[in-house]
Design goal:
Chain lengths: 321, 331, 290
């Protein structure tokens, strides 16, 4: 167990290191950030001065060394635009993104699993065919467009929900959470629904495929031969087995939600880190982009690790090695 | 069997189970009748694809689409299971009638511990509390020959060998003290050395618990050791039945003869093994007359015209054949 | 050809309504991008053809609609229908070219990794692993933010995220293929590696790629639309369907919904058609699921 943890830790560090190299290289080859920090009428001397302060006059290797050593020390530099530590900016907006992603995931699971089990258990029924066509439509829709249509219908046209922003939040251990206020829920529903659709469709299709595969197994019939109810056979015996392939993609789906949150946040003006990323891309605010990417990489690596742990908890045949 | 005075536990009357596939209707079971008294073991024998497993699943009401029971009666103590609803069938499954599947590697849920899978039966069919159920599981596991039962209950199926898993499956089948056990090729997937152990175990357990058993198999050697009666199926029909000894020593139907002759006989190892010529006809499109006639050495013109019906022959035997064999006669 | 019409594949195709609908949608878009520009009355990017008097006309079935512009017009008096036909050309062009490039590069890398193994295999597959643990959209977004907008740059970004799936699939089937006796025999007979790969390995690893490639075109159309919607995709001079939606989004709050809703419907129909057909192909070409 200890050996496994150590191995995973080394693996995770290695992945993060590779990401840092790629991020650094891409950033170095594109644009000149010096013009982000100097005034428009700056003299050549001022530009050179700024360049020296930013370390842009050094060789790539030296620059990378400075980059990685400040990363390791937790110093991610200041945003060119906000003149504040980039890490602080991102962390301020992290809770908003996390809560939207979690609500979207909960929504996706709540819809996808029962419908997926039903469609897998009754593959020939008309309802199942409708569910499957709907899920295929779900992965064929541009998410941002769905958000737009929802805004138009529910916010602009009928006025049921607000079209943008996060609404009231409440403090919880120093974090600003909108799920603790009714107004927060009112605001989160449209963006969370928009974000969840694609993931919902994919999880549904995976659950169905898993159930169909499991449905052919002898142990399902054996469970029925014991006298178990159809519900118990499907949910207690079938679903757990069917979920194994679903769990393997669960981490990736969570990652997708975080990635697509950038778009959803942009449409709904949701003040999360995804919107900050897009704004920073427009403004070439390099430190913020770097922090976002490194933080998201860290989150993905941790999610994948947790998924592997959950996997072993569900499947006794798999042990941590 | 009409001569047995014991009350009938299970009577199957003219059972027909069809599968409606795109390629046509498969009449997997087409008018099968037999009965079993309490404490009896009946062998249900036939080639692969002969509809034997379907009989077992029909009795438990476990026929899935595109299959359907089209007609007939399955009387358990006089109650017709074909007409019983799903709720009633669930009470019967596992409690009155239980089943042992062919492949122990796939009949246990890989994600549940053995204890949980055993406990499930008792939770469904008994009023026992958790502690009493646990004790019952331990005892049952020990009685099927699994040592250290207490700790084995916590283990998962993949930690057991094939033979051990089949013991677990048998333990599950026996747990609620059913009156009838349907064993579908219970030893086919096992090593030869394990096979006889498992068969002995089943015979002993059934005798101890006073249960009846339908032993579904393609292996006449197995049933001849285990069964009181044998029913031989061919293309979804009963072609012969009777007491085991009489049927094995002098069958009346040429098909049964063929099955017996294809058993390797160790005492006579130089003799060439017999086989039944030809293959089972396309069950979607059965010919007129006797289904076996194309493979039968005794077939005559009549066999192509008229389908033979099951009629009493000598002793306990009944056979569906226009030209049954006499004792000592080869096919 | 007659063999094809009598095949089981064609028989199943005729019986599958989703395959029929999917290919009908695909055929519609193929036709639209090929002849569309010749059948619409207006070239939406010819400034001379636009008339500001025609701006923000609603679809023809609403009050103020104009029969000349049945899906309405945008702020410059551009016909939405004509914009969609021109936009679908760009979207589909990007999807197809990026798919072909991904497929070519991914297959090549997969063959190399599977056939030669060793260090080169480890490097290619580790890169693929790391890349696969990140969402495509994020990688593409990051690349686009670094290299700037443009059709060529979108193609590069999509290819950079798209090759992995081919490389992994091809590597897997190459590994199982070179174990087979006829390949071993060819090796023993001294055939050059390039020839063994081309004649024996390649033809046997291609079938699973058909499904991946089909579905990927749809995925690419969606990713490109997302990038363009965020303003880091195609330039304003070559508006894809995604960019049309973005432009329409800016006036959505004024109730001018048609300039953004219809291009979205077009993307949905295009991708839905591709996915329907791709699903059918997967069922047909993957015997395990039958």
């Amino acid at each position: 167990m200890f050996g496994y943890l150590l191995k995973r830790l080394i693996q995770m560090t290695l992945v993060l290191w590779v990401v840092s190299v790629i991020v650094f290289l891409m950033m170095s080859f594109t644009g000149d950030p010096v013009f982000m920090v100097v005034p428009i009428d700056a003299t050549d001397a001022e530009i050179a001065q700024a360049r020296r302060i930013l370390g842009l006059d050094q060789s790539l290797l030296v620059q990378y060394w400075r980059f990685i050593s400040s990363l390791v020390q937790g110093d991610f530099g200041n945003s060119y635009v906000f003149r504040q530590p980039a890490m602080t900016l991102i962390l301020e907006r992290l809770p908003a993104t996390v809560e939207m992603v979690l609500v979207a995931m909960a929504l996706a699971l709540a819809v996808a699993i029962p419908l997926g089990v039903y469609a897998g258990a009754n593959p020939e029924s008309r309802i199942s065919r409708t569910i499957m066509a709907g899920s295929l439509l779900g992965i064929s829709l541009p998410g941002f467009w769905v958000g737009m249509v929802l805004i138009f219908l529910f916010a602009v046209h009928w006025g049921f929900f607000p079209s943008s922003g996060r609404g009231d939040t409440a403090e919880f251990f120093g974090l600003r959470i909108s799920l603790l206020t009714a107004d927060g829920w009112h605001h989160i529903i449209l963006p969370a629904v928009t974000l969840s659709l694609a993931t919902m469709a994919i999880l549904l299709r995976m659950t169905r495929a898993g159930m169909m595969e499991v449905g052919r197994q002898d142990f399902m019939k054996f469970a029925r031969a014991k006298g178990a109810t159809r519900r118990d056979v499907l949910y207690k015996h079938g679903l757990k087995n069917a979920l194994i392939p679903v769990i393997t993609i669960f981490g990736l789906q969570l990652g997708d939600l975080i990635a697509f949150a950038t778009i959803t946040e942009t449409i709904f003006s949701w003040p999360g880190m995804g919107k900050l990323l897009i704004d920073s891309i427009y403004r070439a605010d390099r430190p913020v982009i770097v922090v976002y990417l490194m933080l998201v990489a860290l989150i993905f690596v941790i999610i994948n690790f947790l998924v592997d742990i959950v996997y072993t908890l569900i499947d006794p045949r798999i042990t941590l090695k | 069997m009409a001569d047995t005075a014991q009350p009938k536990l299970l009577e199957v009357r003219n059972l027909r189970t069809y599968f409606h596939t795109f390629a046509g209707t498969v009449k997997a079971v087409n008018g099968v009748s037999f009965d079993i008294a309490s404490g009896e073991v009946m062998g249900l024998v036939g080639e692969s694809g002969g509809g034997k497993s379907v009989v077992g699943f029909s009795i438990l009401g476990l026929i899935d689409s595109p299959g359907k029971i089209e007609g007939g009666q399955i009387l358990l103590d006089g109650e017709d299971l074909v007409k019983a609803g799903e709720t009633r069938l669930r009470e019967i499954r596992g409690r009155d009638i239980s089943m042992v599947f062919q492949d122990p590697m796939t009949s246990l849920n890989p994600l549940h511990s053995v204890g949980r899978q055993m406990d499930e039966v008792l939770r469904l069919h008994s009023e026992l509390d958790a502690k009493a159920r646990h004790t019952a599981c331990v005892e049952m596991l020990e009685s099927v020959g699994i040592s250290r039962a207490e700790e084995r209950l916590k283990a998962y199926p993949h930690q057991f060998s094939g033979g051990m898993r089949q013991r677990v499956v048998i333990a599950i089948a026996l747990l609620a003290r059913p009156r009838l056990i349907i064993a579908d090729e219970p030893t086919t997937a096992l090593d030869v050395t394990i096979q006889s152990q498992i068969l002995k175990l089943m015979r002993r357990q059934i005798a101890e618990k006073g249960a009846s058993m339908i032993l579904v198999t393609h292996d006449l050697a197995v049933v001849s050791e285990m069964a009181d009666h044998i029913t031989v199926l061919y293309c979804g029909n009963v072609v012969e039945r009777g007491r085991t000894r009489e049927l094995i020593e002098a069958p009346a139907h040429p098909y049964t003869r063929g099955l017996i002759d294809s058993i390797p006989d160790l005492s006579n190892r130089h003799e060439r093994l017999q086989q039944i010529p030809g293959t089972v006809p396309d069950i979607r499109n059965l010919p007129k007359g006797c289904n076996f006639r194309d493979r039968c050495p005794r077939a005559q013109a009549l066999c192509a015209e008229v389908e033979p019906i099951l009629t009493a022959q000598r002793g306990s035997l009944s056979a569906a054949c226009h030209f049954p064999l006499s004792p000592g006669e080869t096919a | 050809m007659t063999a094809f019409f009598q095949s089981e594949f064609f028989f199943n195709y005729r019986r599958s309504s989703s395959a029929m609908i999917g290919s009908a949608l695909m055929a519609f878009f193929a036709l639209a991008v090929l002849v569309g520009p010749f059948v619409v009355s207006q070239n939406p990017y010819d400034i001379a053809a636009l008339n500001l008097m025609d701006s923000y006309k609603p679809p023809v079935w609403l009050d103020g609609g104009d029969a000349q512009f049945w899906l309405g017009t945008d702020g410059q008096g551009r016909d939405v229908w004509a914009s969609i036909l021109y936009g679908a050309r760009i979207s589909l062009f990007i999807g197809l070219v990026a798919m072909v490039a991904s497929c070519a590069i991914g297959t090549l890398l997969g063959l190399i990794a599977g056939f030669y193994g060793g260090l080169v295999d480890s490097i290619i597959m580790r890169v693929a692993d790391i890349q696969l643990s990140f969402p495509s959209i994020l990688i593409a977004l990051f690349l686009m933010s670094a290299v700037g907008t443009g059709v060529d740059k979108v193609l590069i970004a999509l290819t950079a995220v798209g090759w992995v799936v081919y490389a992994r699939t091809v590597r897997g089937s190459t590994l199982s293929e070179i174990e087979k006796e006829y390949v071993q025999a060819a090796k023993v007979a001294g055939l050059p590696n390039a020839k063994i790969i081309r004649k024996h390995v390649l033809p046997n690893v291609l079938t699973p790629l058909i499904v991946i490639a089909t579905i990927q075109v749809g995925t690419f159309v969606l990713i490109e639309a997302s990038l363009s919607f965020l303003g880091v995709g195609v330039p304003i001079t070559q508006p894809s369907l995604g960019l049309l939606i973005k432009n329409g989004f800016d006036v959505l709050f004024s109730g001018l919904w048609w300039t953004s809703v219809f291009p979205g419907v077009a993307i949905m129909m295009l991708v839905f058609g591709i996915n329907l057909f791709g699903d059918f192909l997967r069922d047909e070409l993957n015997p395990r699921l039958k």
